[in-house]
Design a protein that fits this description.
Length: 537
């Protein structure tokens, strides 16, 4: 199955963060390979909880969109730039492909070559010039090494096709020449005396000892082949290094982390079939072929503490949802296949997880019990929220014993650490627990700010309202409502964008002004969201 990501909603609160960690631990004990993630920066309360119980903060998950690394492309398909044209052609035939990436030192991407490129080179390329390694020439010609002084051979190709006197009278050999000749000793003697770059003797022709002696003095490379001169002249060009015909085009290159839909869109414009895949170090990983994309390994995910698409990760439609564990109302997330779905009317997702541990006979470690306890205390305001159930109370008592904490004292310290507004921008305060809800093709948002320092917000109330209007316009909301919950008073002050005033006045049947106080309002889920939805439907 591979890696499975477990995560809560955007703008993660303590229940969301801790339930992702706790469920991931449970699943791993049951044999799955899971990893908890978060969809945003964790708040101060959650950080306090993780630090207190010495739990590592989950990594950030940007999206679960299908990437090229999730597609089963041809891994480790590439060839070195010093390979001969002949070697590349045989490699393409062996792999059954029409193109291949070309690499240099440490698999660094160099370019791409196709059968079409090779054919074009053989028909229209410079057939008189050779740029190849000695070994490639030897292999292509099925030759015998006679003398070797240079690893790389570069020069103009000549074939001694004239009779010897004509050749000697008309051709002035130089150190940059590569000569193909049979057992024509006068020409061979002239060639070694001139110190040419490479002498290719065809038909297994004889090379006289005195000519070899001169060749050694002048460091002339010599190869002997059983092929005749005609065959040799035809094949020698195939020993050219493939780098000589590379047309390096970066628009044909994709990275393994590129999104699949972006790749498809770009490939439709480029109209190629073969595309090299690289990593972030520009190292070639293989080749993806448009005509052979069959299997796509969509990311596997488990959702906790939410089931609204707008509250979830980017690209959720491209992932395989395996399971949902939540304590909110049924949302609008669809799945392609049946899944495990756990939904209970309790105050916290962690309460549900407690029973899942019990059902699977998995012992809850002290630190996991501590963060599960924290999630329940946070979501139920230490069991004071109207969302609190008898099950929550029972689970809190049990988890507190395992975690070895006085849960009331611990909750007070947790809230104190979490509700401090020190160092936060206005937008960070507003979005500390901020959720979006869809209505037809529109959306609205309700945020909740738990604090022991309400005055800090009211001292800058106009600025907060201005920031709300800015967020509303920028992110396209119908309206935004923020509940500033005073934990000690057990109630909330409401601030809002101007478009929410009518809805709020219909709910509370009074003239609602900025900072309107609602006694007992501590639960967004139970005490304001249902009323807002009722007025909009």
């Amino acid at each position: 199955m591979g890696k499975v990501y477990v995560f809560g909603h955007q703008n993660p609160d303590t229940d969301s963060v801790t339930s992702a960690i706790s469920l991931s631990y449970l699943k791993n004990q049951l044999g799955m390979d899971t990893e908890p993630r978060v969809l945003g920066h964790i708040n101060k309360e959650s950080k306090y909880v993780l630090d207190y119980f010495k739990i590592k903060e989950p990594k950030y998950l940007n999206d679960v969109k299908l990437q090229l690394k999730d597609v089963e492309y041809l891994k480790d398909v590439y060839i070195d730039k010093n390979s001969s044209i002949n070697d590349v052609y045989e490699y393409l035939n062996e792999k059954g492909i029409t193109g291949t990436p070309v690499v240099e030192d440490k698999n660094k991407y160099y370019g791409i070559v196709t059968v079409k490129d090779i054919a074009k080179e053989l028909i229209k390329g410079d057939i008189h010039f050779l740029d190849a390694t000695y070994e490639n020439i030897l292999n292509v010609l099925d030759g015998e090494e006679v003398l070797k002084y240079d690893d790389n051979i570069k020069g103009d190709i000549l074939v001694a096709s004239y009779r010897s006197t004509t050749f000697l009278n008309n051709i002035n050999l130089t150190k940059d020449n590569i000569l193909i000749v049979g057992d024509r000793h006068s020409i061979i003697e002239d060639a070694v005396n001139k110190g040419i770059k490479l002498l290719i003797v065809t038909g297994n022709g004889e090379i006289k000892d005195n000519h070899l002696k001169i060749a050694k003095q002048n460091k002339v490379n010599i190869i002997r082949t059983k092929n005749d001169s005609f065959t040799t002249s035809k094949k020698v060009g195939l020993s050219n290094s493939i780098s000589t015909i590379i047309k390096n085009d970066s628009s044909k290159v994709f990275k393994e982390n590129d999104y699949y839909d972006d790749f498809i869109e770009n490939s439709q414009k480029l109209k190629h079939n073969n595309y090299p895949i690289l990593n972030n170090k520009n190292e070639c990983l293989g080749l993806i072929r448009i005509t052979e994309i069959v299997k796509k390994n969509n990311k596997q995910v488990i959702l906790v503490d939410h089931q609204e698409k707008d509250q979830s990760v980017i690209g959720l439609d491209e992932a395989n949802i395996l399971e949902i564990v939540d304590h909110h109302k049924i949302g609008n997330i669809n799945t392609n296949d049946p899944i495990n779905f756990r939904n209970m009317t309790v105050g916290s997702t962690n309460t549900i997880l407690y029973f899942m541990y019990d059902e699977n006979n998995i012992k809850i470690p002290k630190e996991i019990a501590g963060i599960m306890l924290s999630g329940i205390l946070s979501d139920t305001l230490c069991l004071q929220s109207p969302t609190t159930t008898d099950l929550d109370k029972k689970v809190v008592e049990s988890l507190a014993k395992i975690a070895e904490v006085d849960y009331e004292k611990y909750a007070n310290d947790m809230f104190k650490a979490g509700t401090s507004l020190e160092g936060l921008t206005k937008e960070e305060v507003i979005k500390s627990d901020f959720k979006s809800f869809p209505v037809d093709d529109k959306k609205f948002a309700i945020g909740q700010v738990f604090t022991l320092d309400v005055d800090r917000i009211f001292n800058e109330l106009d600025s907060y309202i201005e920031k709300l209007e800015e967020i509303k316009e920028k992110e396209g909301y119908m309206f935004i409502i923020i509940c500033i919950t005073d934990i000690l008073k057990n109630g909330s002050y409401i601030i809002y964008t101007k478009d929410a005033k009518k809805v709020l006045e219909e709910i509370y049947n009074t003239n609602v002004k900025q900072g309107y106080y609602v006694d007992g309002l501590v639960s967004r889920k139970k005490q304001i969201l249902p009323d807002v939805l009722d007025k909009l439907m």
